[in-house]
């Protein structure tokens, strides 16, 4: 049960339980364990160059990506911090090829925990915001050994999700299906304090986030959307937009929760066999749950993220989320429900992006 350092989160969870969230003691205890894991990762991140955490680990994960030292450290902290409590049956991590069941002699709990222990790895060595993302599912009844198939549940089955952002301050942002709350870590007392009780994505925005270096590989609906934003006050949107790219999904999601905006990591033709960059189960789904609970939206570009039935543990997916009106506009462009004629001067043979792409 809660120590002094997680007492505020425990109190909030009990309160949300009374408001109708389906929270039992096991889920509350698991969320407290996750909060504590985030706090430990936060302490390690804050040590920077003093803490032997920078650089690469010298290994490649299941996604074929080089692991940063902190990817491995954070993965260990999440697993060890949750596997002995008796509340999870198994965990699944970006850094592990297969689900990791709790050790045989420990009680097996009713929940499945999925996480990206360290998101935005390329930011670690340059001291820019990174984060952790997690999703919790109920373990299907009647199964003894936990299998990969148990994790392949649609996002709307999540019972809780959230992220921690390790930025100028550390925050934990959480949903249990009754809205979205943000807690700020008080580094003096060590407690997560409820500072943002009801986060809501503003409906209107003038900001978008996309890795524009991929523009020559985008599909027409995404080109059209970005082109219209870039056209600003003189274009069809009639207003100027600003563009941001932090290279950390957590940091982008946090900015959008606080001040609105839209994020796109669409399918592209750069690696034709890869359907997107980000992972469905422990990146897209928890962000989708948070966005919807905060009044925003999340989509593949074509359909609601939370309705997808996953086909594999590390499945990648195109990801679009943020202010509802923008996400719906992007969906319309994909489904041709909006066939307003448009040309794309920035992308034609002599346009800015074609020129940049060489
Ligand atoms: O290399 P790019 O295109 O900037 O990609 C950045 C994206 O990759 C990620 O860093 C992937 O997450 P990991 O660091 O967990 O692999 C996202 O956070 C971010 O949105
Ligand atoms: Mg990630
Ligand atoms: Mg990661």
Automatic annotation (TrEMBL):
Cofactor needs: Mg(2+)
UniProt-listed Enzyme Commission number(s): 3.1.3.11
Pathway: Carbohydrate biosynthesis; Calvin cycle
Domain Fructose-1-6-bisphosphatase class I N-terminal: 8-197
GO MF entry, a single one: fructose 1,6-bisphosphate 1-phosphatase activity
Reactions it catalyzes: beta-D-fructose 1,6-bisphosphate + H2O = beta-D-fructose 6-phosphate + phosphate
PANTHER family: FRUCTOSE-1,6-BISPHOSPHATASE-RELATED, SEDOHEPTULOSE-1,7-BISPHOSPHATASE, CHLOROPLASTIC
Protein's name in the database: Fructose-1,6-bisphosphatase class 1
Species annotation: Azospirillum oleiclasticum
Source lineage: Bacteria, Pseudomonadati, Pseudomonadota, Alphaproteobacteria, Rhodospirillales
Gene of this entry: fbp
């Amino acid at each position: 049960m809660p120590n002094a350092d997680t007492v505020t989160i425990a109190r909030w969870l009990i309160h949300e339980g009374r408001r109708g969230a389906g929270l039992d003691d096991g889920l509350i205890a698991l969320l407290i364990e996750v909060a504590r894991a985030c706090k430990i990762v936060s302490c390690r991140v804050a040590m920077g160059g003093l803490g032997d955490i920078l650089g690469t680990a010298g290994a490649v994960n299941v996604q074929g990506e080089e692991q940063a030292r902190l990817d491995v450290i954070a993965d260990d902290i999440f697993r060890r911090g949750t596997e002995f409590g008796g509340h999870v049956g198994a965990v699944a991590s970006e850094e592990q090829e297969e689900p990791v069941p709790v050790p045989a002699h420990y009680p097996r709990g009713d929940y499945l925990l999925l996480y990206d222990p360290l998101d935005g790895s390329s930011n670690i060595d340059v001291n820019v915001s990174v984060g952790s993302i997690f999703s919790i599912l109920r373990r299907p009844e009647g199964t003894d050994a936990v299998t990969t198939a148990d994790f392949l549940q649609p996002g709307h089955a999540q019972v809780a999700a959230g992220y921690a952002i390790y930025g100028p301050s550390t925050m934990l942002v959480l949903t249990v299906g009754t809205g979205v709350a943000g807690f700020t870590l008080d580094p003096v007392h060590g407690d997560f304090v409820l500072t943002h009780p009801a986060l809501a994505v503003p409906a209107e925005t003038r900001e978008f986030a996309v890795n524009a270096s991929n523009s020559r590989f985008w599909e027409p609906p995404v080109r059209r959307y970005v082109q219209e934003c870039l056209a600003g006050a003189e274009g069809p949107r009639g207003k100027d937009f600003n563009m941001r790219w932090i290279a950390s999904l957590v940091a982008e999601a946090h900015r959008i929760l606080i001040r609105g905006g839209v994020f796109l990591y669409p399918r592209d033709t750069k690696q034709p066999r890869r359907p997107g960059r980000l992972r469905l189960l422990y990146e897209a789904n928890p962000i989708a749950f948070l966005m919807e609970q905060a009044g925003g939206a999340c989509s593949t570009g074509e359909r609601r993220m939370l309705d997808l039935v996953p086909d594999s543990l590390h499945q990648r997916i195109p990801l679009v989320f943020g202010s509802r009106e923008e996400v719906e506009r992007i969906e319309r462009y994909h489904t041709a429900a909006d066939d307003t004629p448009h040309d794309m001067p920035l992308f034609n043979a002599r346009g800015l992006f074609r020129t940049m792409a060489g």
